[in-house]
Amino acid sequence: RWPGLSVKSPKRNASEHITVTVVLYNAVKGGVPSAGDVLAAIDDLESLYRSCSETGQLADHTFDFMKEPLKVDDVNQISAKLTYQPPAVQVLGYDQFPTA
Fold first, then answer.
1. Whole-angstrom Cα distance, residue 52 to residue 99?
2. Quick one: which of 32, 37, 36 has its CA closest to 92?
3. H-helix or E-strand spanning residue 14
4. Radius of gyration over alpha carbons of the chain, in Å?
5. Is residue 35 within a helix (H) or strand (E), and if so which, with residue range?
6. In whole numbers, what is the pLDDT of the chain averaged over residues?
7. How far is it, in rounded angstroms, from Cα 51 to Cα 3?
């Protein structure tokens, strides 16, 4: 049995950069993606890459928009989005490994 992390109060080394890894999962009806599903996933990734127009550190002025408090309208938009994303559609074959 793994006893867990040994460091209970980790501290970040300020001289080292942070790397963010984003993992996207695409659920498809029937459990096996069609060619169209794969193309749609590629389009989603390419759109995500295009939307990341800046690189740098959070402390940079470029990212000041990330440091503003949420406004009531922001919270309302997030709440509205949660009603349809992720979609409330049953995933078929979620417990079966696809073959051929």
1. 36
2. 32
3. none
4. 20
5. helix 35-51
6. 81
7. 41
Query: What pLDDT is stored for residue 32 in this prediction?
Result: 85
- Per-position DSSP letters for 40-100, written without gaps between them: HHHHHHHHHHHH----S-TTSGGGGGGGSPPPHHHHHHHHHHHTTSS---PPTTTTS----
State pTM to two decimals: 0.39
What single-letter amino acid sits at 46?
E
| 33: CB partners within 8 A, 6+ apart | 26, 41
Residue 100 is predicted with a pLDDT of: 62
Q: In this structure, what token pair is assigned to residue 64?
A: 């000041």
Q: Which amino acid is at 77?
A: Q
CB atoms within 10 A of CB 18: 7
